[in-house]
Amino acid sequence: MAVALQTLLPDPVPVHHLGLYREPSTLQPVEYYNNLPYHRPSSASAHPEIAILLDPIIATGGTSVAAIQTLLEWGVKKVVVIAVLASQGGLERAAKEGGAADQVDIWVGGCDDEVTDRGMIRPGMGDVGDRLFLTIGK
């Protein structure tokens, strides 16, 4: 998603990664990777104006909320979330808990109604991590 998005932007932008996964039994987000620069700019005007958060699937909304909160705490003024698919409940949670209305915009390609008790969108399209990293059935 990052490469495709960069082709749409008029100028090159720095890319940082947040690695989050959903713990299977509690469905809570767990951060395993963060390469945001540790230092914060010295003046308020030097804080990043906008971050574009690419999240293929917003199912429960938990990982999106955690990523949004991390970016806002880092000093980003506005977060734009772009997702391929979301559940209605996950979308509402990310919009409500992610930050103030003027801090977060969420763009989503499609929205399904339900999430299973395992936190998967129904009908959805399966586990995106499994598809990306070829771990289906492992």
Characterization of this structure:
With 138 residues, this protein is of the alpha/beta class. Helix content is 26%, strand content 30%. Strand 5, helix 3 and strand 6 form a beta-alpha-beta unit. Helix 2 packs parallel to helix 3. The two termini are 24 Å apart.
Structure in a nutshell:
The chain has 138 residues and is α/β, with parallel strands linked by helices.
Q: What are the salient characteristics of this protein?
A:
single chain; alpha/beta; four-stranded parallel β-sheet; two-stranded antiparallel sheet; 4 helices
Shape: globular
The residue ranges in which pLDDT falls below 50 over 5 or more consecutive positions are: none
State the helix count. 4
Relative helix content = 25-40%
- Secondary-structure-based class equals alpha/beta
Secondary structure: number of strands: 8
Q: Please give the radius of gyration in angstroms.
A: 15 Å
Strand content: 25-35%
Write the layout of secondary structure elements.
Elements: H1 2-8, E1 18-22, E2 29-34, E3 50-54, E4 57-58, H2 62-74, E5 78-87, H3 88-97, E6 104-112, E7 114-115, E8 121-122, H4 128-133
Parallel strand pairs: 3-5, 4-5, 5-6
Antiparallel strand pairs: 1-2, 7-8
Helix pairs in contact: 2-3
